[in-house]
Each structure stands twice: as C-alpha cells, then as structure tokens.
Amino acid sequence: QVQLVESGGGLVQAGGSLRLSCAASGFTFSSSAMGWFRQAPGKEREFVATINWSGGSTFYADSVKGRFTISRDNAKNTVYLQMNSLKPEDTAVYYCAVRSTYRTGSFRAREYDYWGQGTQVTVSS
Length: 125
Fold this sequence. Notes:
This protein has 125 residues and is an all-beta fold. It has strands at residues 3-7, 10-13, 18-25, 33-39, 46-51, 58-60, 68-73, 78-83, 92-99, 114-115, 119-124.
C-alpha cells in the first residue's frame, strides 16, 4: 500500500532552517508528482510547494517563494523541503502528498491521492 512518512520537523527560532523529508513507498515514485502542504491551528490546509516527476519543474506558494526549496531523489524515493529564513507564521503541521497517476505537480490539494501523517514545525519568535 502507499506510504508517505514525513520527518525532520521540530522547534526552531525565527530565521533558522529545517529540512523536511518524505519517504515514499507503494507506488512508482519516479513517475509521480509530489507536493508539500501545511495546516496551522484553526486554519485550512494550504499549498506550499510542488515538484514534477523528474524534479525539473517546481512551483511555490508566494508566502514561501525564495525561502523554501522542494527537491527529490528518485533513487531514494524521497522528496525534501528545505526551509530557510523561517518565520513564526510558518508554524504548522507539514504534509507531503502524491499525485500517483500524474507526472506534473499541482497546487490543488484535491488533486492529490495520498497523504502522509504530517510533521510539526514550530517557529519561535
């Protein structure tokens, strides 16, 4: 079955960095687009970043552009989210997700088939 397991979350001070990882299994990772989303307390889940099957195309939410970088290693079946210059408003549970039948990414949560359990990121001021 499809499994997405996020790791790398934690507590960091404003201005710091974290690198999230999402280990995938149960589907053809190298043919699938991946995405990162986040959900803060009391708020709806929101798009963060997406990457196509090869890693050659990425797209970011305006709120993280220039600070976050999504990447993937198809040999390791893993997608990453490097987060720099973190702000308190980045505090949320971060989820990775897969579009298992599509090679191109999307900013729409409804277009993803499977989701991980999430990892908490807390940025203190």
